[in-house]
Design goal:
CATH architecture of the largest domain: 3-Layer(aba) Sandwich
Number of domains: 2
Low-confidence stretches: none
CATH class of the largest domain: Alpha Beta
Strand order of the largest sheet: 5-4-3-6-7-9-8
Number of helices: 12
Shape: globular
Largest sheet: 7 strands, mixed
Strand content: 15-25%
Radius of gyration: 21 Å
Bound molecules: glutamine
Length: about 300
């Protein structure tokens, strides 16, 4: 591909086909994101400059990125960042790449916290990874407070992985948000505290299913963030059992899981854990679901 003239349009079309053949479900988008990175252009600007030819060095840099993507490496790791809930987050192999589905969890938590039903108190995000949920909630509450709609709240987030925590801290500092990031296994880092809301996207993939995940997930993303045990519910059951003690009366626990079946089991676990009114919300028509439950007053 090095002797011909490659315009932006031509290279995008070529890469779309090449990446699609290598198994990417989003060949065109991948191509635009990676070329945008090399040329330091936004996606819209690429389209406005369709006829611009690429220089030899640009082509060489781009080719190296495309090669990585064709071997399955997620675009977010290649770029070192991912947008989530309007925030630009640093993302590296030590954390799960934030997914659009998880934005629904943020929506639900913010909706609750800004409703009349919400008790006073802080917010807890368990298994925070890149910090995406905690940072999106903190950022949104801050933004709303500035506009006179509700108040800011303290946000604490925990993760078992020191590597993940370092990335979450980097994101918090870059966004200048006052989220308290703590190292520890679920609630271990917040003894004796009670929250108005607990959110979590814990690992929930069934152990035997991990091998069947898409190669870009299975071969690149941290197993610790994916494998939720035999039925995927190891951490979710602990969350269901312990949340009551860590919520103020009327507080909300909101979690993401991988299927309606898991959601059903989690709802039952929440009831057994002394929580009330569990609700299952399907996300974007897919198998991913949310379960929301409250600590009774
Ligand atoms: N949704 C993730 C996937 O694509 C799983 C995330 C999780 O286990 N929390 O596999």
């Amino acid at each position: 591909m090095s002797t011909e003239v490659w315009t932006i349009q031509k290279i995008l079309n070529w890469t779309r086909d090449y990446l699609t053949k290598s198994g990417s479900p989003s060949g065109r988008l991948d191509a635009e994101l990676l070329l945008g990175e090399v040329l330091k252009l936004r996606r819209l600007d690429l389209i406005l400059r369709f006829d611009q030819p690429l220089q030899a060095e640009e082509l060489a840099t781009y080719k190296a990125l495309i090669k990585r993507r064709s071997k399955g490496e997620p675009v977010a790791y290649i770029l070192g960042r991912r947008e989530f809930y309007g925030l630009d987050l640093a993302v590296r192999p030590g954390v799960l790449v934030p997914r659009p589905e998880t934005e629904s969890l943020v929506d639900e938590v913010v909706k609750f916290l800004t409703s009349d039903a919400a008790p006073q108190g802080a917010v807890l995000d368990l298994c925070t990874g890149s910090g995406c949920i905690a940072l999106a909630v903190a950022h949104t509450l801050k933004d709303k407070a500035l506009k006179g709609k509700g108040t800011e709240r303290d946000v604490i987030a925990t993760d078992l992985s020191p590597e993940a925590l370092a990335i979450a801290i980097e994101n918090r500092d870059a966004l200048d948000l006052a989220v308290d990031l703590r190292h520890g296994d679920l609630f271990a880092a917040v003894p004796g505290l009670q929250f108005a809301a607990i959110a979590s996207n814990p690992p929930y993939v069934r152990t035997e299913t991990v091998a069947w995940l898409e190669p870009d997930v299975r071969d690149f993303e941290p197993r610790l963030a994916l494998d939720g045990g035999v039925d995927g519910l190891d951490l979710l059951r602990r969350i269901a059992r312990q949340s009551k003690d860590f919520l103020v009366p009327g507080g909300l626990v909101a979690v993401e899981l991988g299927s309606r079946e898991q959601a059903q089991a989690m709802s039952e676990a929440c009831l057994q854990g002394g929580l009330s009114d569990p609700k299952i919300l399907p996300v974007m028509g897919g198998p991913t679901s949310l379960v929301l439950a409250r600590r009774p007053h």
